[in-house]
Structures are given as C-alpha cells and as structure tokens.
Amino acid sequence: MNKWIRNLCGGIAALLIWMAIGQSAMVAASEISVRTAVIVALQGEAKVQPAGSSLQYDAFEGMTLQQGDRLIVGQGGAQLRIKDTGDEVNLGEYSLLDISRLAGGPQGKTTKLTMLSGMAYFAVTDLHGKPDTFQVVNGNHTLDVKGTHFLVVTDPVTGASSLSVVAGAVSTGSSRPASGGSLNQQPPIIIYPAQQIYLGGSEPGGPSVVDPTRLIQNAPPGVIESLLKNAEKIQQENEQTKKSFEEQANTPKQPANPNLAQQLADLNKISQNLSNLVGNLAQEAVKQQKLSSGQVQQLIDEANRSLGGNGKIDLDKVQPLDPTAGVNPELAKMEQLLKEKQEELNRQQLELKNAHQALIQRILEQQAKLQEENRKAQEEARARAQEQFTNQLPPQDREQFLADKRKLEQEKIQRGGSTPPSPAPAVPTAPSGGTSAPSNPNPNPNPNPNPEPPASFTLNWRYADETSVPLGVQHTLAFGLTLKEGVEPKSDKLKVKVTLSSNVPEAVYAAIGYDFEYDSLPPTELNLEACGTSTAASCGEAWLPSEEDAGYGIGALGDGWPAVISANWGQIGNYTVTAEAFQSEGDTLVSLGKQSFQFKVSEKPTIGFTGGESSVNLAPEEQLTYAFSAKGENIQPSYRLALKATIYGEAPYADVPVTLYHNGAPVASGIVDGNGTAYLTGEAGVLAALLAAGSDLTLAWEPYAAEPGTYEIGLSWVYPPADGLDPYPFSEDKNVQLIVGTL
C-alpha cells in the first residue's frame, strides 16, 4: 500500500514538474513573434524570390514577405511596410532588397535589410529609448538607424552609393574586414539631417551637406512624392533636432562625437539648413520636372496645416543650403576627392565594358558576314554542280529535271516563301553507255496547318544561351519545369517525356545519361532509338525515370535545374530536345503541352597561347599576375569556354579569387580549389569573342603569402566541367615557371 502511495505521489510530482516546464516553454514561445512585411504599393513589374528558393514569383499589392525573402523591382517602384512597426521602404526601379532579418522577442525587435542595388527611401519610426534595432546593409557598410528619414542612392552612371539623411541620425560603419583581413576598429560616423556621405570605399569618408540637385536627379518621382508626403514629420523632427543642438551647445561638456561638435560650432548655419532642406528638395523636384508645381504645392500645403511657427514651409522664401554648415572643410575636401576618384574609375570601367560590347558586336557581325559569304559560295558551287550535271543528261531527262525544279520553285512562291525550302528534285543516275529513266521528284508535303497550342508550363534551362556545342565534349542539359500562372494541376506530380530529333540523317542517340537531383535513384541511361535508323513511331523518345514511376513533385521540378541530361554528341548537326509534361487524371495521362530547346553541334575549337613569358619572378608579398595572348579557331559565339589555371606546389592559395582581365576590365573569374586549380568563366559570349579575334589578357591572383621557392603555373583552355565530369581540353597546356624570391 505504502509503495503504491509513493508511486502515486511520485507520478503527481513528475506531472507538476512537466506542467511547469511546459508552461514556461509556452510563455517563452509566446514572447517570440513572427514578423512580416507587406507590399502596400506597386508600380510596374516586380518579382519575389522566397527564402531558400531559386524561383521567382510575380509580386502583387498585399503580398506578405518574411525573413530571407528578396524583392526584385523592375521598371517602376514598390513600397514595403513592416507590419508591426509601420516602418516603410520606398524602392526605385531596378532595386534589389533582401529581408535579411525580421525577428522579435523579449530583447526587442530586430530589422535588418540588405540593399543590393538601386535606391530606396526609408521612413523609420522613432527608436529612441526602445530596445529595437533597425539596420540597412549597403555594400561594405552597415547603417544603424534610430528613427529617421534617409535615402540610399546608387548612381546609375558611376555605380557609387551615397547616404543622404533628411531627418534623424544614421550611424555608418564597416560591416566587413578591411584589406588585410583585420577588422577596422575606428568609431562609426554619425550622419545628421541635411548631411550626406559617400559609401564608395571600404571605409566612408567625412560627411558633407546634402546636394539637392544630385539627390533629386537620382530619385524617381514616386520616391520623391513619398518623401514630400512625410514633410510634416520631417519638419517636426528637424525642429526637435535644432532644439536639442541648442541645449547641448549651452552645456559646458564637450561632446565626444566630432561630427556633433562641428554641428554645435555652426549652430546658426545648421538651423538654416534644417529649415530649408525640404523646401530645396521640393523646388528641385519641380525644376527637374519630376513632379508638377501644383502637385508639390499641394503636398507642402498639407504639411503646413499641421505645422506651426517657424516650422512652416514657404516655397517662395526658400534659401539655398549652406555647403559649409557643420562640415569639417578638410574632411569635406577629402570626401569630394575620394568621390571624384571613384567616379572616374567607375566611368573608365563603364567605357571598357562598352568597348568590349562593341568588340563583341563587331566580331558577331564579321562572323555573320563570313557565314553569309560561305552560304553564297555553297549556293554557287551547288548551282555549278547542277549545271554540270544537267549538261551531261540526255535532252529528255534534262527537260524533265528542269520542269520538276520549276514546279517546286512555283510551289514555294505560292506558299508565300514562309516555309522551309523543299529539297531539290531527285537527280537521275548519270548515264552510262545509254539513257536511263528519270526518277520522279518527291517534294516534302506542306507543313502541319494546325500548330500545337502553347504549353501550360515553362522550361528553365541552366545554360539557355548555349546554342552551340563543340563536337566531342560531354554536354549537359540541365533544366527545371514550372507551371504557368493560373494553371491548376490535377495532382501534385508530373510525368515528363523527352524527345530528341536532329537533321543528321543517321543520328545515333547513344549513351544519353540522365539524373534527377532530388531523388534516390542512381544516374541511369536513356534508351533513345535514333529516328534516322528506325521507322518506329516512338523513335527518339524516352520517359524520364522517377521513383516508383509516380512522377516528379511539382515543387522539386521547379527548384533550380534538377533534371540533367548528358551526352557526348558524335555528329555535327542541329539537334532539338523537346520535353512534354503529363498529369494524371484518374488512369489517364493528360498532356500539358511541349517545349523545346535547340542547339547546334559544331567543330571543336582549337585555341593557342600566342604570347607570354616562360617564367615569372615574384617577391613574397607581391601580387601574382601573368600577361599572355591567345587566339582560337572554329569558335562559335555561344561556346562555353573556361581558362583552367593551376599553381603546383605547397603555397597557401586555396580559396583565393583569380581574375582574367582584358585592357584592364575583368572578363572572367574563378576561385582556387583545394588542388590549386581555378576555372575562370565569364559572361556568355565574351571569352568566345575575345579568343576568336585574338586578344591580350592578364591573369591576376589575389595577394597571398607564398613561401620562397620555385613553383609551376599550368594554363589551358577547356570546356567548363560539370559536376563529376572532367574538363574537355581545347588547347595544349602552357607551363610557366614561378620563382618566389626572398626579401
């Protein structure tokens, strides 16, 4: 009995402990809030890339975003609002914003946004006295905000970024290690209203007074309108800032912040700038025709209804901003020189980029000209051969052949010349000691007058611009499949069938490999019977194998490029890969349509190194660069090419970036792997165009601490390797001796 009572008491005690723990866990969980943002306004087009996904979806007003999502704005603009705080972000066109962190809990709310490109106007609620944090990351810099209105603008010409504060204060600091790998320990710079700072380098320079002309020039009308709608709040906050400055100026204690000390020293000038800031921006918006004068006046009138005393804005009495107010002249001068230097560098890079594009265009035009000349030469050769052949035919056969030829040409004219030309009529066998009966022409029938309806899905090819493939390489075709907007699937799985076709008469589809990234099936081989050697209706077709033959999950199909077809094309010609998707409706498979990808298999290119020293002498602390020249033959504009660069030895250079330059501009890049090798690739067509023309190039490794000694650099041009595949060489190896000396 006593034992039973002890067990009962023990059970009750355990239950009470479990309830206490569970209750505390529930309380802790209840203190953690799920925070979101919502798109409240949208002009033009925009996309959203959800956290952890490579897919992008059309954005719409009212759409909810969470931590990890990315907002991609095209032409137009977007306005984003943090739901629980009311903080707003107005994005201009071609802006990219990552919602890096939206967290809430007992320690306060944390908002962290990463501005990748474009421009944005931020209107943040007052955070003074609160544990909440609001940060904006732009390039190498983290901006800490305490309730303010400010703009981050990326100049579309120079690519340089700048911060302009309209109200409140923003603290700027480096968010990444400076050159050399050590963190910068300098205190952050606080930017006050009517000030701006250039964010072009690893460390910001000194603040300067806002330039209304430049600011409005880079801001779209929607952003300017949003800023002026907040004119009342901006004026009120700036009036409070003026009072705060006056109070601090009357205290004997010297502020630790040097920028604040400069503000207090120029208090009269600062007050005038704060009073005239919004008016200058409004006048500039009308001057640059970003907004109409009536629209601006209406926004100012709405702000003035709630403003009293000296805070009201009179556009007829606005004074220009004093560029010397609250600014250290030496720092401002250094800031301007740094800005001009970076802008000049960016302009030079832009000019080089335009020059490269012009070079590529000239090369493409030359190739098109050569192709047209080759086509004409082939036509002339064909015409001469046909004339020579017809001249040796007996008169009766010759007349029949020419009549058939005229008939085919007339049929083509009647079809309007919009269909592919029919083949030449069948040629009779050349006479041998007598006459022979002519063969009857066999023109192709008219094309199908009932084209197939468009597919209900989109195929996303990993290398959609690779329309030419070198003969003999191990070629991979990786793709994903996403349903078009509005398509409602009958089931959550799809089956996919692929068909290969070619203009090669005896095409052989052998050793076609296949793998799906998100299943447990091992890589397999598709059994595709060549249509050129078969009369079967299913020639060139294969169902892509899936687990338990149930098909592929729609989400898995659309996540990147999970389906991978690989082959070594052994015959030159034109090829087409067609994918057809099916969904199950009961026991019936219903097609969602077809989509195709066409490519051409051409001659393998040959690339030679036409210049470059056989050895390089390097000091231990010196950056390794190597200049050489290269030229290729049989290079198609869409060939995928890579430079394989390897340093053999024990030098610590793993994970080091390597860049290939042409005339000072980067054209390809890569990262050194654990074997000392980097595969340098660039934008589609750039390397192909440069090698086709023959170009001078420079290879540069990032600085690393190499031990004194002798090493060897190996260079070769290859087809970029896919996962698990070796690179296919297009050139002989070039070996260079690297001698690292002593200090």
TrEMBL record:
Pfam families: FecR (PF04773). Residues 429-439 have a biased composition (Low complexity). Residues 236-246, 371-385 have a biased composition (Basic and acidic residues). Residues 78-170 form the FecR protein domain. Residues 247-258 have a biased composition (Polar residues). InterPro entries: FecR (IPR006860). Residues 440-454 have a biased composition (Pro residues). This is FecR domain-containing protein. It comes from Paenibacillus rhizolycopersici.
